[in-house]
Amino acid sequence: MGRSWWLGVLAGVACGGGDVAPGTTTIGTTTTGASGDVTGTPGTGSTSTSDPGGTADTTTGEPAGPWEPGGVYPTPPGPNARGFLDRRGIIHAHSVYSHDACDGAPMDAEGNVDQECYEDLRGDMCLTQHDFIMLTDHREFFSDTEFPDTLLYDEARGDVLVDHDGPAANWAACGDDRAILVMAGCEAGLMSVGLQRHATGRGETYGAQTVESKGLLEDAGAVVLLAHPEDYTPEQLEALPVSGFEMYNLHANTIASILEAAQLVTMVMQNDPGLPHPDLVIFPLWAEDPRYLERWGTVLARGGRPITTMGTDSHRNTFPEELPDGERVDSFRRMQQWFSNHLLVVPDGDGGYDDLAIKDALRARRLYGVFEYMGYPEGFDARIESEAGVVEIGGEVSLADAPAIVVAVPQVQMLDPAAEAPVITGHVMRAIEGGFEEVADGTDELLYAPDAPGAYRVEVRITPRHLVAYLGNYVDLADTPRVWIYANAFFVGA
């Protein structure tokens, strides 16, 4: 498939879809006998031995050498200083149960799943060493696929189901001592994540944007979000029955950078030696999207309290051409290791967690997103300290309690000492009509005392000089700061 095919798909790929006749054959077994009372490895942050870059010790999980593009590190196994587990994962991704995944053919005419695409997804989930993945399949196949197949459950692989009056989530085994927590969801009228079972009404409910449909989705265990806020006005976002929306989406970013994408495609087709490192092909395409910032800031400034997430939107259906490493541009691995959502999770008595704990953290907005294609942050923290106590990301405090936003600015984990050091800065942004205004910045530790009620968020920017050797013809872009971390807002009341 050539460049013209890719550009046509890129311009036209929709995240919804029409009424496609669903297939019926699924992978794995529908036996639900496993219990959700998981002990030991699942939920403890243990590491994978499948890391292609060899950047983590397979016994201890400790990084084994300096970070380089494509390398992945596990999250810390234990809690932070305030008792939260930092768990990294994907929110908004597609599997073989989306009609437009797998180059548009996830199933054949007889309803048989594309086994190669399924294996790609299962393997790549483990390679990226995420702790969880919230699938958001389209209703055309998802509605007719039963739990636990919606969870990619495969008993033969050693998967372990989480049971909440039925199979609700899946600890998908990675062939070692590690598992990734898989949750089901549906992107249609709204985007439900963490469904524990099919909602009453299935396809009709998934396709609606009503208060009633939100209630049915929540009854089925979901957190109800919205994908692609660029398609909505701030007024529509305020009126829709959702708990939040995306603060970044890779698909939307790529479409907005279509000229840069076309140039990159030309270089790939010509095997141009000026290409960036294969796992940095996102670098010349990435840009802050003013539509997202405008909607995000405006909704916050008007008093909204949205959960905001970063959407990977991976389908493995956009660019099958191979880069010099022999892997297609849009592989699940490549897309899912570029950035992720970090949730601050309350551990259970054994130090682990389950799908309910993940969703509790999401509902509480204890979330920050990281563009890890530039490296993994070490030492990041954002909180409010006040006379009433410490407030986490997503929390609320009164101005009368003398709050101060405290930001520990991170460094790149295991930065190569031979590389030029990046410039890393922390910023406090206040939501205003039309977007955000910066109210404070600094390096190392940043302290800002809000002087007015409002919504405040933290971001970290990086001037990625440490990537100079990997950027080919795009080396000049290393001189420009770009966002590394987006955090959900704090709310300061009168």
What does this structure look like?
The protein is of the alpha+beta class. The protein has one domain (3-17, 46-376). It is built from 12 helices and 23 strands. The strands form 3 sheets. A 7-stranded mixed barrel has the order 1-2-5-6-7-8-9, surrounded by 5 helices. It is globular.
**Helical region count?**
12
Strand order of the largest sheet: 1-2-5-6-7-8-9
Number of strands: 23
Which percent bin holds the helix content? 10-25%
Total count of domains:
1
Whole-number average pLDDT?
A: 89
Largest sheet descriptor: 7 strands, mixed, barrel
General form:
globular
Task: Give the radius of gyration.
Answer: 21 Å
Comma- or semicolon-separated keywords:
494 residues; alpha+beta; seven-stranded mixed barrel; four-stranded antiparallel sheet; 12 helices; 20% helix; globular; disordered N terminus
Helix and strand topology:
Elements (H helix, E strand, L loop, with lengths): L2 H10 L72 E9 L7 H4 L10 H13 L4 E4 L3 H4 L17 E4 L3 E7 L5 E9 L3 E5 L7 H5 L3 H9 L3 E4 L7 H6 L4 E6 H7 L1 H12 L20 H12 L5 E8 L17 H7 L1 E6 L9 H9 L3 E4 L6 E2 L2 E6 L2 E4 L3 E3 L5 E5 L2 E2 L10 E10 L2 E8 L2 E4 L5 E10 L18 E6 L2 E4 L1
Parallel strand pairs: 1-2, 1-9, 2-5, 7-8, 8-9, 15-23
Antiparallel strand pairs: 1-10, 3-4, 4-5, 5-6, 6-7, 10-11, 11-22, 12-17, 13-14, 13-16, 16-20, 18-19, 18-21, 21-22, 21-23
